[in-house]
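Schema walk-through. Below, the input block comes first and the output block second. Nothing else is stored per chain. Lengths vary across the set, and this one has 599 residues.
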Amino acid sequence: MKKLVACLLAGTMMSGAALANDSVLSLQSNPNDWVLQTGDYANTRYSKLSQINRDNVGDLQVAWTFSTGVLRGHEGGPLVVGDIMYVHTPFPNKVYALDLNADGRIIWKYEPKQDPDVIPVMCCDTVNRGPAYANGMIFLHQADTTVVALDAKTGAVKWSVVNGDPSKGETNTATVLPVKDKVIVGISGGEFGVQSHVTAYDMESGEQVWRAYSMGPDEQILFDPENTTELGKPVGADSSLNTWEGDQWKIGGGATWGWYSYDPELDLVYYGTGNPSTWNPAQRPGDNKWSMTIMARNPDTGVAKWVYQMTPHDEWDYDGINEMILTDQEIDGEMRPLLTHFDRNGLGYTLDRETGALLVAEKFDPVVNWTTGVDMDPNSETYGRPAVVAEYSTEQNGEDVNSTGICPAALGTKDQQPAAYSPKTELFYVPTNHVCMDYEPFRVSYTAGQPYVGATLAMYPAPNSHGGMGNFIAWDNIKGEIVWSLPEEFSVWSGALATAGDVVFYGTLEGYLKAVDATTGEELYRFKTPSGIIGNVMTYSHKGKQYVAVFSGIGGWAGIGLAAGLVNPNDGLGAVGGYAGLSSYTALGGQMTVFALPD
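--- output ---
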């Protein structure tokens, strides 16, 4: 492993000291544009635009709309670079370039030809979280794992490369991250027993530069046993293999379908890994490293600097793929580089993003009950581990036993729907699920390309609460406390947006775009769009006028019943029954709605 690391580092030095991609850095600093799905490398989803503010947001009107021509779940959101808006769709993953100078006239359309057989292999709807822009190119990762670079002006394909094998269960729903001269991409397939990975491709040629697996031997996971650390200590040799029984790691999951962030100063890329395979914990003894883990990697070599496993030996499908939000904040009178992460397991984490030191780990929904909390004593043998409550342990209760009343449900206190951060309030605005479950694991055998789940689930609103299935909260990441919370009828599956106008936007599964006061949470505006919103709100400015845009198109895991026409309550990994009431509020759609203040 030492030889591998040395070679990788030498290659980096020979190629020159590259900086973060100049085009992305320049565009993300211009609030008129929206160049990445999360707004910036730090994943803050914050805009410096303030023309729309808490005093006038109630006057918003629909400025224009665009039909994508596709139904099912519309996650992600549009990009804006200069006078062009880029809009994407779920499968078949069309991309449109729209002329903002001509009322959204279509400049070009990219429509890939994909085998529809990939659709049943996709876990939770045919969603795609959108493209990214860099160096005059649009980068898209398709459902069939084809990564494509398109000329941003013409739509012409400059290169394409296949990142995975759908016949084994490898697919994609995520966006990509352009960093320096590379494009970094992940993979889906945890429910099909794939050995998941993150891969860097050369931005100009599409050639693979490195690939880092989530679990396996050190040379595959790109760990340096002496210098890769967890909670300040070297992980040691075979840190992953030592936590799996036999060759189970080869079908161990750890999918990487979430969001990626990047710190140009520390030169580190951050992301999370998903659940181990199978969902039946009895079939995979051990901590199952490095599933359920926050990773900090060098983008040139892929070598991990530090890691932190949040949910060792996951027993509930609490994927760790949610976004890592990077901020610089004061703690005990000292400015520190922080990483804040709202995990599916219901805990909000704050870490030092340079060292991986764990600073905060607290519940961001009071109903979370599978754990009493994380051991925060650095001198303890269980430092950094969550204490599991036996009553809600699916392994301790055993196979073919229905463990009831577990909070949160498998879709987590928050799924992939990204939070936002305002440097003005120093608060995080978090769309959450207020959902619990019953979970019955059973023995399952592995067959390549077939579901490898091994559990039956039922989901329902958190008992003895407000009766709804969601909350939209403001969170203090230093204190680890909820500042305010807004109850919602259904899960909030839309990504949030915070602005310098002291307004926070989010969407609801019923289809409402809502605007609330960033300080108090007071609702200032709502508008019912044609379909449920699981897309992420964004904002841009064109010719001196600020706009807010969002996709509506019900689907995703929460809306899979409507999206795929499912009626069995246990289908959709338990979501169909839990969200059956959605059909009384919304229907399928595929539209972008753009809002502005009246002239």
